[in-house]
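All the exercises in this workshop are built on plain-text protein records. There is nothing in a record beyond a sequence line and a structure line. A learned vocabulary of local backbone shapes supplies the integers on the structure line. The question running through the whole workshop is how a given chain folds. Here is such a record, shown just as it appears in the course material:

***
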Amino acid sequence: MKLISLTILLSALLSLAAHADKGNLTSELKVWNVVKQADGSEALRPAQTVKPGDTLQYTAVYLNSGRRPVMRLMASLPIPAGTELIGASAVPHEVQASVDGKVYAAVPLMRKARRADGQVVDVPVPLAEYRSLRWPEQQVAAGASFTTSARVRVASVPASASTSTDPTATPAAASQAR
């Protein structure tokens, strides 16, 4: 069974973006393996390696350690290639999605398709095609935090993926004035 270094998947998330007005905003991204317990409940375990079929939860926490509110925080979360968003798993639930990381719309994403009879209808975009999530602008009070999360299922492991793990690797989240 192929294992992939979590750092490979996280490399796609290095662009985790927090666009906001100036302030003392820091962010931390954690990746968890969602594990089913014998009693049916779920437990979150730090993800170090993953394999196809695993469910991962990405949790991003944005902390304003300044004395003034951070205005216009717009958190986004890229969805790595080889994973598929799990429907309705984004928290907060009010979220937009994109298939290209540039154009966003409210979920579920829809597109036009032509039926066999020639009629053009709106059909949902498969979750496997979602490549990024973005939450509405937020204001984060001084000393407060804002948390987002979403779950994905690992669909495939790139052939070039390493099987080693680096538990000390943590992705950086960018913060910039807008």
User: Anything to note?
Assistant: The two ends are 44 Å apart (CA to CA).
